[in-house]
UniProtKB/TrEMBL annotation:
It comes from the Bacteria. GO terms for molecular function: FAD binding; monooxygenase activity. Pfam families: FAD_binding_3 (PF01494). Coiled coil: none annotated. InterPro entries: FAD-bd (IPR002938), FAD-dep_Monooxygenase_BioMet (IPR050493), FAD/NAD-bd_sf (IPR036188). Keywords: Monooxygenase, Oxidoreductase. This is NAD(P)-binding protein. Residues 7-346 form the FAD-binding domain.
C-alpha cells in the first residue's frame, strides 16, 4: 500500500470510477460506493478528447476503448438551414499533435470498460450515502440501507445533486439553465445513402444539434440537442419525447437533421443544470470532484473529461505530495484544477466551442501528467 489510509469514493460515475481505478493503481486502499443497485448501461453517447485518453492510457484502457469507438478526423460545424460549413476542426487529423485519439462512443460501453479497471471486490453497489460525520476514528459514512463504514478520506464524486457537497456547503438546488436536450440513438442503417458526417454540430441562433457515431463499425448514430425551455418540473430527471415535438423544434433545419429525427424511434428530453462556482472544494478529510464540484452545460463535451482530469490530479497530489498534510494536498489539487475547470465551465456554458474555426489545443493537447505539481 502507498498509504495505510482508507479512501471512500462516493459515486461510481465516470469521475468516481476513474478515481477508484487510478488510486488503486497508485496502491491506495480504495472502496467505491454507488447508490445504483448494479451497473446500468445509460443510453447516451459521449466524446472523449485526447486529454482524457491520456488518462485512459494510465488506466491501461486506451487500446481497449480505441478498439470499440469511432475516431472522427474532423469536427464540423454547419449552419442550420443551408448546411454551410462554419468550421472544420481537425481531431484525429492532428492525432500526433494532440498525442492521443479523439473518440466518440456509447457512454455505457466506456463506463463498463472503466468499471473493469476497478477491483470488483471493492465496489459496493446499492450504497446510497445519506450522511457523513468526521470523528476521531475517521469519517463515518451512513447509507440509506442502514449500514455504515468508516474511512480516512472521502471523495465526493456523486454528481450534480451531490450529498457530499451538501454536507460541506448546505442544501442548495442546482440552477436550471433554461435549456433542455433531446437525445436519441439511431441504427445507422436507417441513414444509409445519406452523406452522414461522423462528428457534426448543426447551429442556429438559439439551438443546436450535435451528432456522431457511437462505435467502430459506425452502426449506431446519436444526436443530442440544446434548446431553450422556460421551466423544468422539480425532481424530474427526464421525460419521453416524440418526433413531432422535435420536428416542431427543428423546423426549417437542413434535410440531414430532418432525416436524423425521422430515423429516431425513442427520443428522450433532459434538463440541463449548472451551479455557481463553489467557494470550497474540500474541508477536513472530504474532497469533491467532477459534477459535484463544477457542473456545466454539456456544450463543449468536456464535463466528464473535467471529472476524469480531477480524478487524475487528485491521485497525483495524494501520491506525490502525500497525506501527512491532507489540507495542503487537497489545496494543491484545487489550485491545479480550478483555473482549467472554471475556464471549461465558462466556455461550455457560453456554447461557443468550435462554432467557428479555432485551435482547440489548450483542451485536447493538455496532458495532466505533464503538470509540475510544485510549480
Ligand atoms: P456523474 O456521472 O453524475 O456520476 C455520479 C454518480 O454518483 C452516479 O453514478 C450516481 O448514481 C452516484 N450517486 C449520486 N448520489 C449518490 C449517493 N448519495 N450515494 C452514492 N452514490 C451516489 N461530458 C463529456 O466529457 N463528454 C460528452 O460528450 C458529454 N456529453 C454530455 C451530454 C449531455 C446531454 C449531458 C447532460 C452531459 C454530458 N457530459 C459530457 C457531461 C458529463 O455527463 C458529466 O459532466 C459527467 O457525467 C460528470 O461525471 P461525475 O462522475 O462527476 O458525475
Amino acid at each position: 500500500m502507498a498509504e495505510a489510509l482508507r479512501i471512500g469514493i462516493i459515486g461510481a460515475g465516470l469521475g468516481g470510477t476513474a478515481a477508484a481505478g487510478l488510486l488503486q493503481r497508485a496502491e491506495f486502499d480504495v472502496t467505491l460506493y454507488e447508490q445504483a443497485p448494479s451497473f446500468s448501461r445509460l443510453g447516451a453517447g459521449i466524446q472523449f478528447g485526447p486529454n482524457v485518453m491520456k488518462i485512459m492510457r494510465r488506466l491501461g484502457l486506451e487500446q481497449k476503448i480505441e478498439e470499440v469507438s469511432c475516431h472522427p478526423d474532423y469536427w464540423f460545424s454547419r449552419n442550420w438551414d443551408d448546411g454551410a460549413y462554419l468550421s472544420r476542426i481537425p481531431l484525429n487529423a492532428q492525432h500526433d499533435r494532440y498525442a492521443a485519439t479523439y473518440i466518440t462512443i456509447h457512454r455505457g460501453d466506456v463506463h463498463e470498460i472503466m468499471i473493469g479497471a476497478v477491483d470488483p471486490a471493492r465496489i459496493r453497489f446499492g450504497k446510497k450515502l445519506v450522511d457523513l460525520e468526521e470523528t476521531a476514528a475517521g469519517v463515518v459514512l451512513s447509507f440509506e440501507d442502514g449500514s455504515t463504514d468508516t474511512v480516512d478520506i472521502v471523495v465526493g464524486a456523486d454528481g450534480l445533486n451531490s450529498r457530499v457537497r451538501e454536507k460541506l456547503l448546505g442544501v442548495e438546488d442546482p440552477l436550471f439553465t433554461g435549456w433542455v436536450g433531446h437525445r436519441a440513438i439511431i441504427p445507422a442503417s436507417k441513414l444509409s445513402g445519406l452523406d452522414v458526417e461522423p462528428c457534426v454540430k448543426w447551429w442556429s441562433e438559439d439551438r443546436h444539434m450535435m451528432a456522431y457515431f457511437l462505435d467502430k463499425d459506425r452502426s449506431e448514430f446519436y444526436f443530442v440537442t440544446g434548446e431553450p425551455a422556460e421551466s423544468w418540473p422539480r425532481g424530474v430527471a427526464w421525460v419521453p419525447s416524440t418526433r413531432d415535438e422535435m420536428q416542431a423544434s427543428f423546423k426549417g433545419y437542413h434535410p440531414l437533421v430532418q432525416a436524423y429525427i425521422e430515423a429516431a424511434d425513442t427520443i428522450t428530453k433532459w434538463p440541463l443544470f449548472t451551479r455557481h462556482p463553489l467557494p470550497l472544494w474540500h474541508r477536513g478529510r472530504v474532497v469533491l470532484l467532477g459534477d459535484a464540484c463544477h457542473p456545466m452545460k454539456p456544450h463543449m463535451a468536456q464535463g466528464a473529461a473535467m471529472a476524469i482530469e480531477d480524478a487524475a490530479m487528485l491521485t497525483r497530489c495524494l501520491s506525490e505530495l502525500g497525506t501527512a498534510d491532507l489540507g495542503g494536498t487537497f489545496e494543491a489539487y484545487r489550485t491545479h484544477r480550478i483555473e482549467r475547470a472554471s475556464r471549461v465551465q465558462q466556455v461550455s456554458n457560453a456554447n461557443t466551442w468550435l462554432r467557428a474555426d479555432e485551435d482547440p489545443f489548450w483542451v485536447y493537447g493538455y496532458d495532466i501528467y505533464g503538470v509540475d505539481l510544485r510549480g
